[in-house]
Fold these 2 entries.
Entry 1:
Amino acid sequence: MAAILETRALAAFYGSTQVLHQVDLAVEAGGITALLGANGAGKTTLLRALTAMVAVRGAIRFDGREIAGLATEDLVRLGIAHVPDGRGTFVHLTVEENLRLGAYTRSAKAEVAKDFERVFGYFPRLRERRRQQAGTLSGGEQQMLAIARALMLRPRLLLLDEPSFGLAPLVVKDIFRILRAINRDEQVSLLVVEQNANLALDLADQAYLMETGEVVMSGPADRIRGDESVRRAYLGY
Amino acid sequence: MTALLHQIFSGLATGGIYASVALALVMIYQATHLVNFAQGEMAMFSTYIAWWLIGLGTPYWIAFLLTLAISFLGGVAIERIVIRPMEKAPVLASVSVFIGLLAIFNSVAGFIFDYQIKPFPSPFPSDAWYGSAFMSPHEVGEVMVTLVVLLLVYGFFRFTPLGLAMRASAQNPVSSRLVGIRVGWMLALGWGLAAATGAVAGMMAAPVVYLEPNMMSSILLYGFAGALLGGIDNPWGAVLGGFMVGVLENLAGAYVVGADLKLTVALVIIVGVLVISPAGLFGRPVVTRV
Amino acid sequence: MTTVSETQAAARPQLVAGLSVATWRRLILTVALVAALALPFLVSSYHTFQLTMVLVYAMALLGLNLLTGFNGQISLGHGAFYAIGAYTTAILVTKLGIPYWATIPIAGVVSLAVGFLFGLPALRLEVLYLALATFALALVTPQILKYKAFDAVTGGVQGILLDKPDAPFGLPLSGDQWLYLLALAVAIPLVWAAENLIRGRIGRAIVAIREHPVAAETMGVNASLYKALTFGVSAFYTGIAGALGGIVVGFVAPDSFPVLLSLSFLVGIVVGGLASVWGVLVGALFIEFVPNYADQISDLLGERAKALPWAIYGLLLIAIMYLMPTGAAGLVKRLTRGIMREF
């Protein structure tokens, strides 16, 4: 299967400190890839590297085209949406304004209006709260808003950083169900960073395991799930 | 009673000028968390440009609009060329650069246009129908122009996509980049708008205080006071603060401290607000993460 | 991180051309002191007057540097403390007949008190807001000084004239030479005190507060107390400078203390080097002589020459922040390190 995103020997730096080493990763087009690992493994850094939020060295290919070195704002225009850790909602703006900002780079007004409808279809609660200030939403609703905003971009690739963080299990189930639907119905490829390995492996087709800035294991999600050491370290049994 | 009302309305008129300056200050503060100490001098320089255009024979309102456009471009240029490289610099470096800009604008204005006090025309004739015992035609005009400018700015930020993008950039630059906003240019636009708003303040003030290189220093101070009073991260609070300071200044000057110490009122307001409630009346309380 | 060999090298006194660094320092200081003492007898009385003003400004800059360079609290209004020192001296001399030399420490104490009081509310202000508040102070100072109700004391717009003192005990010195030596005699202990302050525990606490106030607090540094004290001491230095300045110039008036003065002080410490005790000399030389040269060119430019000092200050502030943020002191440090490596 063709990869929509590939990295080769990717390295990332905070100042002069190297935090990612030789990362080779591929996200299948139309698939869901999980990125697992403990705290500090470098998962968030990898997502930041992909959207040019940190200094990088190495190759990043999106749809076959080299993108390392492009600015974040330009990557967005290519169709990469990043839902950062902490949601990144514009807390002082309304839900509607947040969504409108998601569509900032798009010019077709009619299409954008349709997308509003589609997004409210996935997240009816957002429609109810559309004029509310985003900061007054609950954690789960803010996560939905963050994903919805990313969808307004009409992305081809959606990067999600810890979508389950701080949310109640029922809410998480809801969100992951919607993520699956988005992947299936919109053909949006997903790269999901999760500390909750169980959830992530349930959702994903492929998985990568990271430790201290390096990829230590990769393969189909089932195989990773079945692996003895992974089970013990990350799945708790 | 008439005297009191006159003081209040007069205060509202000058308050309009302070509100414009306060708005300009807040626009830059919101986006950069920096105070533009050079705001007054930039406005003064814009006013000189208007004066020069009028001197060439340009009709007032054309000169007015041209000045706004030139000031806007100038603000954008300053942000891109002078301020941008200071983005990650420590506070003292930025403050020094602002003071440097202040000094340069003041000296260049003095050098090009000399230090003679010059009269500046008001587009509102002194015998116009809308004058009264409470407010001279120019004061009425000041308030009108200020309100129009403020409404336009409000409308821009509230209802246009670009305005929304600018608000977003000021609040959360990282997330703004993630939706494709070119945050750097938003900052530059903010500076342009601030410069243009300041120019309005200068052109409204000049007929009253006369045009000379130091004309804006007191007005800047009142603008600071207004911005702080209303809340330095709240544009509409700042506007309200500007009007309040205008009225307070007049009342204090007429009934409490006398005209000589009016400027001290600004200092008292500034220090008072900073000590009692740095967020001002309508600002958001600032929580600094440790 | 220092390696083991580097630490060992630091323990062994470094020799440059046969002498230790400490000895070089003492040598240079002694030469400088001798030169400083000799100067007033080698140059004209006008130049002596200018050099005296350099010493005066150096003390004012030292005050500001303690606060802004070392402690990180930005003051754009130190001209106010300079004015307080100058007016205290002028008023005590002309209204109460106190001898001029006795008014100097009094002026210092008055400034210290005002500075400390100003520093107390300023404690809670973010650096930027303090800059704003002190900027307001600078703008307002001339107006307060001109306030008609104070005229009886301040002499109003006309100001106060002071008689130029003669050398005491009938010493064979001109008035200018005496004042220079007096300024030197005041400056030396002040500089010595500042150096010791900075190098000691208190200095480290002050710098720690600048770098990370919260961390400093958790290390047991009472940030509030230190900040207020630093403000007071800073005002003390600048107040003494103002007092001396008033005596040397012989005249204090509201318009002698405009915003430009406070801004000159800022330029002075930026040029000389923030957080540098010796850099203030370079800064003082700069702010004494630049307006002078501007005056000289004023014949060519007429009234427009007023613009020159401002323009130069503005350009320099920006240029230094871009190119040489550590100022002259930083440059000298880099050069001396280079020289030391050569030898």
Entry 2:
Amino acid sequence: MIDKIVASCAAAVADVPDGACVMIGGFGTAGLPNELTEALLVQGARDLVIVNNNAGNGEHGLAALIAAGRVRKVVCSFPRQADSHHFDRAYREGRIELELVPQGNLAERIRAAGAGIGGFFTPTGYGTELARGKETREIGGRMYVLEYPIHADYAFIKAERGDRWGNLTYRMTARNFGPVMAMAATVTIATVNEVVALGALDPEAVVTPGIFVQRVVPIVRAATRAGGFGSAP
Amino acid sequence: MTTPRWTRDQMAARVAADIDEGMVVNLGIGLPTLVANHIAREREVLLHSENGVLGIGPAPAAGAEDYDLINAGKQPVTLRPGGVFFHHADSFAMMRGGHLDCCVLGAFQVAANGDLANWSTGAPDAIPAVGGAMDLATGARKTFVMMEHVTKAGEARIVERCTYPVTGLACVSRIYTDLAVIDVTPRGLRVRERAEGLSHEELQRLTGAVLLA
């Protein structure tokens, strides 16, 4: 019998080693799998490379991991937010490395890893600082930049419902990076607000097929809090 | 004498007037967000947000906010009937693949050839952050910029060449400011409209690139 249900976040993250690359889903505060990230904080792994759209909000989850000095590098599109003070301090003190990636390139690089694509040419970023030193090519009269996939050892994502085969659905914009990160990691761990019986999810409506998910952890539903208000021109 | 200028709401209304029935539009963070308030309710316009939602409705009533349903500015929104959710790679495929009719972005500077600078001031101590700015600038079929015509210090934001790091090359097609509406054309910057009572000469004086009448 295939049963991917794991009873606790602590058990689900127990084997994450030092130096692991961990993708963490979420945009703003929607879809942040903070229960898993905080379990990793307790677990103690260090020297981590984190892939997330942002670089932590407030005091919890990724922000707490950064504050504890456990993150070597962040790969993200938008680290600077009103409540990203832990990242800001670590960055200014030179304690954390940042790889800044345009958001769509980040999503596509993650998707490419999951889809077995060795690289792709994208128009995004051409002619900018973020494409400096990268291979470019003219295709059909337009200029493109070569980008490579981002693989991860683990992906932490937050879903709404899941079954013991790992099939998942999401809730509104909390879906964000979950489906692509699930594809790109060797071990994908999804928290779900509800575990349902096999066959209970409408197969036409499953968003992430269970093949991309290794562990499913039920959590107690909590309302998503506000946060992550950014600064913009 | 003070320069005649449009208010932020007048600017937003002016942008909204160019958004036609049936268009798919992404409104950037900041000033462009105001445009949504000025799109006539009876007009079916699909608002896209890069975090994975198409068909954004009006802001939720106080107390009805759900932070699983937010826009790219992390503000709570609502979903119109027919609206849909999708993951990030699909969301940016909508942009990059040319499926969005237009995006409206804020900016620090726009150059006469349509180069856009809106992601970094290049300040050495600043923490860089780009988000979806580069994807939007190059991905949407048309990129509109909405910004104050000059900086708080009075410096021109419309310039011959951007001095801030660029977001995208030759990507802007129209600029809406508090003073004018200006098209970026292969022949240069062409003024479509000026704020009432503002002369072409005064507008030119506040602009760092040559304006065609």
